[in-house]
């Protein structure tokens, strides 16, 4: 039965709240998706929010359990809004109950789902049990938004790799840097803070060794109150050229730092890096001796990562584009280089990919313009 307009409007309202809750812990819940849940008591024209939940850091407890535990006995006869189909496999918690088990035991009357979960632990397996228990199910509420929230999880389940977002900054002339001399300062403080927030919502930030050698970045989140949200730092470093005194190596025991090298990279360099707290991961090399990027992304997926934020500059961005691994593109246009830039931000293949992508909007932050695309 299709809900009437009043019910549909109400469902949209509470699903939007659930989506907002789900976005809160992006970057903290891998290998699980960051789900949002809202428990509502239906009271005619005045529905009452009984409880809210979102997936906790580390992936557990799940959002549904948080909302159900908070609602307690009030969950009986209520409606539960959840951004992703609840799991139905036995849980690793003490009682072993899945979210489907808990929903049934709590006496929830109606379940509204944003997107179905392709995971073998969920996909369609709980629907029959829920319906047999008298739970009415409505699926697909704000589905596009829900799938976007959970795209990293869906990508990992279906393709075995995380979702890849590439961020590039360019001058008004289209340059990302210069081949010789000091680094170009392209964007302002507000734009830089926005980038740090994007880092905080990623499972990992990825750069190439060229960026480490040129800029010696920290790749941390340096926003007040979010300092503990720094993601895993990943360096694509075919021959393990990252210097032992690099900033990311100096803090490798505080923030997980992974270097992805080829199987031929020198073992003695690995020993020094591992001694500093770095994890060295190896994959096969291509004909040029470089890390095979699809293999590297599969390795990150196998380790549980669902969302990676690539800040490695034009060379890494172009290599990812050549391997058709760019799912989202964030292009930031900042100040003029005044004739000093000579490294184009967009390589030819990335430009082609961008032309095939779907524009997702713009943000003007002071003098800097953020433009967003996603793979169609």
From TrEMBL:
InterPro entries reported for this sequence = CMP_dCMP_dom, Cytidine_deaminase-like, DHFR-like_dom_sf, Eubact_RibD, RibDG_C, Riboflavin_Biosynth_HTPR
- Catalysed transformations (reactions): 2,5-diamino-6-hydroxy-4-(5-phosphoribosylamino)-pyrimidine + H2O + H(+) = 5-amino-6-(5-phospho-D-ribosylamino)uracil + NH4(+); 5-amino-6-(5-phospho-D-ribitylamino)uracil + NADP(+) = 5-amino-6-(5-phospho-D-ribosylamino)uracil + NADPH + H(+)
**Binding site residues for substrate:** 219, 222, 311
Q: Which GO terms describe its molecular function?
A: 5-amino-6-(5-phosphoribosylamino)uracil reductase activity; diaminohydroxyphosphoribosylaminopyrimidine deaminase activity; metal ion binding
Q: Which residues form the CMP/dCMP-type deaminase domain?
A: 9-128
Recorded hits in Gene3D superfamilies, A to Z, give: Cytidine Deaminase, domain 2, Dihydrofolate Reductase, subunit A
Provide the binding site for NADP(+): 169, 199, 211, 215, 238, 313-319
Q: Which cofactor does it need?
A: Zn(2+)
**GO term, biological process aspect, one:** riboflavin biosynthetic process
Cofactor binding note from Swiss-Prot or TrEMBL: Binds 1 zinc ion.
This protein's source sits in the domain of life called Bacteria
Name the pathway. Answer: Cofactor biosynthesis; riboflavin biosynthesis; 5-amino-6-(D-ribitylamino)uracil from GTP: step 3/4; Cofactor biosynthesis; riboflavin biosynthesis; 5-amino-6-(D-ribitylamino)uracil from GTP: step 2/4
Q: Does the keyword Repeat apply?
A: no
Sorted UniProt keywords: Hydrolase, Metal-binding, Multifunctional enzyme, NADP, Oxidoreductase, Riboflavin biosynthesis, Zinc
NCBIfam families with a match to the protein in the record: eubact_ribD (TIGR00326)
Its family?
In the C-terminal section; belongs to the HTP reductase family.
What's this chain's function? Converts 2,5-diamino-6-(ribosylamino)-4(3h)-pyrimidinone 5'-phosphate into 5-amino-6-(ribosylamino)-2,4(1h,3h)-pyrimidinedione 5'-phosphate.
Name assigned to this protein: Riboflavin biosynthesis protein RibD
**The organism of origin for this protein:** Microvirga brassicacearum
